[in-house]
Design brief:
alpha/beta, 9-stranded mixed beta sheet, 13 helices, 16% strand, globular, disordered N terminus
């Protein structure tokens, strides 16, 4: 018997999965074609043109890695809304299987997980060059005959200011790429198509934020369900589990994201010299692999003169980004690993309980696994839930 024991082996295996999947993305950062740093497509026009949320600013046909021959793909820039309610523009990817009639295809707005703050990490670019670590889920949905639309979220451009983990900004972006796809003549998608929001980790939070915001923000969408796995629902509780741990890079990136969304937070004012240097490097260079490996076990005290996370301005903005304040009006599938070592399990379970008390039809599933393995382990359950929603089968709840 191994001296590591079963738990130790599982942890090593899970981290190996992460490294293997994410190393592909790192290796692909210098593709044969020009990388995003040389690509003016992602630069927002200045001034922004007039347009309603979901209106298309620009679009181009795209490759999609190994699945290019089986799909029609576009990269798109579209109008959306920031966390402060201001107009912005966001980019993303639209994928439609060549084997389906787009006029009858349902739509999944797939909210990506964490790809990192650097411009080279842009999710749609990772999909274009075949380096998305979430490709198994994307492939499953395309094989099922769904159109898949994927937002990059706010801020992926040559001078990146991504608003990581900021719920309202991300929720709007998840919603508005559906509108953009339906308004593009090139796609042929119906404005009456059934829609599901889906995501894991950052994407799980974004998906549920989109579901909470949709009735007031985009009531015209034919939303029939939402999926959120590994959801960071309560940022205070999540952050308490990250300092000095495997996921410290995600904590640091969360501070960057909130600071980009809410300029009055003034993160720079809390950083020491090491913090200024390392956070600037993170913004320039870090994708998910670097967040996991370069910053593993680090502590916020190493980078700050004083901690911003418990100050009133930060606490107020963090509270604004706590899920559960509004009931979701469609059935929800939520899932989480009970041994999650990045996103605290208990706070997502608390969100599930909040939704249940509010009368939401929640299908809740747990897995005996950690965060990284949960990226893949939850795919079958999510796929079954989505298939039922698109087929019009009655939703069940295990509240």
């Amino acid at each position: 018997m191994s001296i590591l024991g079963g738990t130790g082996l599982r942890k090593i295996f899970s981290l190996s999965l992460a490294v293997a999947a994410l190393a592909t993305a790192v290796a692909a950062h210098v593709p044969a074609t020009a990388g995003p740093a040389e690509d003016a497509f992602f630069t927002p026009p200045d001034p922004l043109p007039a347009g309603a949320p979901g209106d298309v600013v620009r679009v181009r046909a795209s490759e999609a890695g190994a699945i290019t021959s089986t799909v029609r793909a576009w990269q798109v820039m579209y109008h959306s809304t920031s966390a402060l309610g201001q107009p912005n523009v966001v980019t993303g990817m639209i994928l439609i299987p060549r084997s389906v009639d787009p006029a009858t295809a349902p739509i999944v707005s797939f909210a990506s997980g964490t790809y990192g703050p650097a411009f080279r990490c842009t999710p749609s670019e990772m999909e274009r060059i075949g380096a998305s670590y979430e490709q198994p889920a994307i492939n499953d949905m395309l094989r099922a005959g769904y159109a898949v639309v994927m937002t990059d979220y706010e801020g992926y451009h040559p001078d990146p200011k991504t608003t990581y983990i900021t719920g309202r900004s991300e929720g709007h972006a998840v919603i508005d790429i559906v509108r953009a796809a339906q308004r593009m003549p090139e796609t042929g998608l119906s404005r009456d198509a059934k829609v599901v929001f889906r995501g894991y980790s950052q994407g799980g939070g974004a998906s549920l934020w989109a579901a909470q915001l949709q009735p007031g923000y985009a009531p015209e969408l034919n939303l029939v369900g939402a999926v959120g796995g590994g959801v960071p629902a309560d940022l205070v509780q999540v952050s308490l589990q990250l300092d000095g741990k495997l996921g410290f890079g995600f904590l640091a990136y969360s501070l960057i994201g909130l600071d980009n969304a809410y300029p009055e937070l003034d993160l720079e004012n809390y950083l020491n010299e090491t913090g200024r240097t390392e956070f600037a490097r993170m913004r320039r260079e870090a994708c998910t692999l670097e967040l996991l490996l370069d910053y593993r076990g680090k502590r916020l005290s190493e980078y700050t003169t004083s901690s911003p996370v418990l100050t009133p301005p930060w606490l107020a903005r963090v509270q604004e980004n706590k899920l559960g304040g509004t009931a979701v009006r469609v059935p929800v599938h939520q899932y989480h690993g009970t041994r999650d070592d990045v996103v605290d399990f208990a706070q997502h379970k608390a969100l599930r309980d909040t939704y249940c008390k509010a009368g939401v039809a929640v299908d809740w599933k747990t897995y005996d696994t950690d965060h990284i393995t949960g990226v893949y382990l939850g795919n079958a359950g999510a796929a079954a839930f989505i298939a039922d929603r698109f087929a019009g089968r009655p939703a069940t709840s295990n509240c």
